[in-house]
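Task: sequence design from structure.
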C-alpha cells in the first residue's frame, strides 16, 4: 500500500515539476543562457556585486561604502558566485532563477506532492509579472522573498529560532523584510492579549529578528550606506519623511495581484465584514485617498509606479485611474478585515511602504510570495482561522 502511495506521489509531483522545468528551461534557452546585456538596475547592481568578488570576507569599510540603498547580502552572494566560478553575470542570474524555482516548488508541492490549493497558489505566484522578471535578472527581491517565506514557514512550524535566523537574513537582503517579523510579533501580541496561550519564544523570535534593522542603521550610520544616500539625493529631511500615497498604492497592488486572482483561481469570495464595518472601511480608505491620492511618485521624477500604473495610464484619465486604485485598495481592506496573520502581514507591509521613496508594484513581491505560500498550505481562507481564537488554540498556528 505504501509503495503504491509513493508511486502516486512521484507521479503527481512529476506532473507538477515537468511543466515547471519546461517553463524555466525555456526562459534559460530563449535568453541565451541568461546572457543578455545589463538592464535597468543591473547596470549598477552588477558592478556593486563585482566589488565584493575579490575576497570572500569584505572589510567593514567596503560594507559601509557600497553605492546601493539596500542591505548587502545579495551583492555578497552574487560576488561570491563570481569569485568561485568566474562566469559573469549569467551565473548570478541563474542563481536568482534557481531560488525562484525553489520558491514555486515550496508553494506548489505540499509534503512532496501538489494539492488543488498548492497548484492554484503556484499559478497565482507565477501570474505576478514581476516574479519571473525579477527572477531572471540580477535583482535582490527574490532572495529576500525566499528568506521571508522560509521565516514564515519556520514560525508556523514553531521553529522560532530558525524563523528568526531566516528573517535576519531577509532583512540583510532588503530592509523592508522587517515587515514580516513585525507582523508576526503584532499578531502574536494581539492574540496573547486575547488570552491565547503561547510560548515566550513565539514573541522573542520576531522581536529579535525585527531588531536587527537597528544593527544595520547603527552600522551604516543611517538607513543605508552614505554614498548611496548621496547618489540618490536623499537628504536627512527625506529620511524622516512619510509617503502615505505610496502605502495606498501598495494596497491597490495587493488587490490587483492577489485578491482578484485568488477569487478567480479558487472560485470563492472571502467572508465579508458586516455592513457597518464595510461602511467604516469605505469611509476611512476613501478619505485617505482623497488626502493622499496615489497618482505618481511623490519624491522621484519617475512617471509611473509599475506595470499596473502603466496600463492604467494608457487608457484612463487621472480621476478614473484614482478611482480604480481606490476600488482595488477597498477590496484588499475588505478581504483582510479580520485580525488574522495574513491581515497583519498585509498592513505591516503597507505601513513599511510609507517610508518607501518610490511606489512600485515590485515591492509587493515578498508579500505575494508569502500569501500564496499560506494559501497553498491552508486553502483560500484558512489564514483567517485565528480571527476569533479560543482557549484550544495552539501557539504558532495561523
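Answer:
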Amino acid at each position: 500500500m505504501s509503495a503504491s502511495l509513493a508511486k502516486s506521489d512521484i507521479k503527481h509531483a512529476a506532473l507538477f515539476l515537468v511543466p515547471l522545468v519546461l517553463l524555466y528551461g525555456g526562459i534559460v534557452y530563449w535568453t541565451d543562457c541568461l546572457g543578455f546585456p545589463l538592464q535597468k538596475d543591473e547596470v549598477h547592481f552588477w558592478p556593486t556585486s563585482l566589488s565584493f568578488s575579490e575576497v570572500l570576507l569584505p572589510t567593514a569599510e567596503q560594507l559601509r561604502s557600497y553605492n546601493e540603498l539596500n542591505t548587502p547580502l545579495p551583492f555578497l552572494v552574487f560576488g561570491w558566485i563570481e569569485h568561485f566560478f568566474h562566469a559573469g553575470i549569467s551565473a548570478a542570474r541563474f542563481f536568482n532563477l534557481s531560488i525562484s524555482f525553489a520558491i514555486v516548488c515550496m508553494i506548489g508541492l505540499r509534503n512532496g506532492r501538489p494539492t488543488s490549493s498548492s497548484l492554484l497558489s503556484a499559478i497565482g505566484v507565477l501570474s505576478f509579472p514581476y516574479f519571473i522578471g525579477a527572477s531572471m535578472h540580477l535583482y535582490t527581491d527574490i532572495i529576500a522573498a525566499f528568506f521571508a517565506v522560509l521565516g514564515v514557514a519556520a514560525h508556523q512550524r514553531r521553529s522560532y529560532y530558525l524563523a528568526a535566523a531566516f528573517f535576519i537574513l531577509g532583512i540583510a537582503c532588503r530592509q523592508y523584510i522587517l515587515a514580516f517579523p513585525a507582523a508576526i510579533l503584532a499578531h502574536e501580541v494581539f492574540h496573547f492579549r486575547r488570552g491565547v496561550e503561547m510560548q515566550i519564544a513565539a514573541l522573542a523570535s520576531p522581536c529579535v529578528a525585527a531588531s536587527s534593522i537597528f544593527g544595520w542603521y547603527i552600522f551604516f550610520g543611517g538607513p543605508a550606506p552614505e554614498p548611496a544616500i548621496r547618489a540618490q539625493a536623499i537628504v536627512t529631511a527625506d529620511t524622516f519623511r512619510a509617503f502615505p500615497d505610496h502605502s495606498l498604492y501598495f494596497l491597490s497592488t495587493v488587490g490587483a495581484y492577489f485578491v482578484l486572482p485568488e477569487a478567480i483561481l479558487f472560485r470563492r469570495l472571502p467572508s465579508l465584514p458586516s455592513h457597518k464595518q464595510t461602511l467604516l472601511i469605505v469611509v476611512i480608505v476613501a478619505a485617505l485617498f482623497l488626502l493622499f491620492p496615489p497618482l505618481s511618485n511623490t519624491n522621484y521624477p519617475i512617471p509611473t509606479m509599475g506595470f499596473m500604473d502603466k496600463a492604467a495610464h494608457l487608457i484612463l484619465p487621472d480621476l478614473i485611474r484614482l478611482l480604480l486604485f481606490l476600488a482595488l485598495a477597498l477590496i484588499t481592506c475588505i478581504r483582510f478585515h479580520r485580525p488574522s496573520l495574513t491581515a497583519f502581514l498585509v498592513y505591516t507591509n503597507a505601513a513599511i511602504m510609507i517610508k518607501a521613496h518610490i511606489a512600485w508594484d515590485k515591492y509587493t513581491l515578498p508579500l505575494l510570495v508569502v500569501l500564496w505560500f499560506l494559501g497553498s498550505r491552508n486553502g483560500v481562507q484558512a489564514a483567517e482561522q485565528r480571527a476569533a481564537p479560543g482557549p484550544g488554540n495552539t501557539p504558532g498556528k495561523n
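The radius of gyration is 21 Å.
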